[in-house]
Amino acid sequence: MKKSFYIYGSLVLLVLLTLGVTFATFTDKANFVGTTFSVASSDIKLLDVYNGGVDPSNLVDSKPGPTFANITPTWHSDYVVQIYNNGTGPVNLTSKAVYETANDPAELRQIIFVEMYDWVDTNGDGVPQQEEFEQASYGRKTIVKWNTVGFELGTLPQGEIKTLVLRFSTDSISPAKQGTGILFDFSFDALGI
């Protein structure tokens, strides 16, 4: 009986070892350790100096706005803006004007227009010529509409620069508005996509 107990016990032990080895040879595990997530950023900058590159010393969050004096009927003036996508992905660009009515008692915001154009300086002289941008308009709006509706300026890929010409203009100005002025801000906003 002892002998059969040893034989039976040895067989059970041998079966268990065989199953254990078989199980061990057919299982394995691979791990991902330390999985991390980071949230993308929307970060646009203005180039302080036209075509000054994207060196951090030339990237700013704000600049003084342009000053226009002695505007007349059918006047226009072009202003160049360069926007750099310093974020981690593409962004949709928009632009809006911001004003307080106290800074425009003569309501010049109703008669001053802005038209935005994509601009490629094809001759490299740094001066916008009509033929370089006239086909790429985002539309013409009064300062009021720029404030309430704004401009949709499309997608700006990460690490890219968008160069715009802002053409400020008037159609007509009534004599009652002579000597008046307006102060307003405008901004460009980015929404990550």
Automatic annotation (TrEMBL):
Domain of life: Bacteria
Name the record gives this protein: Uncharacterized protein
Organism: candidate division WWE3 bacterium
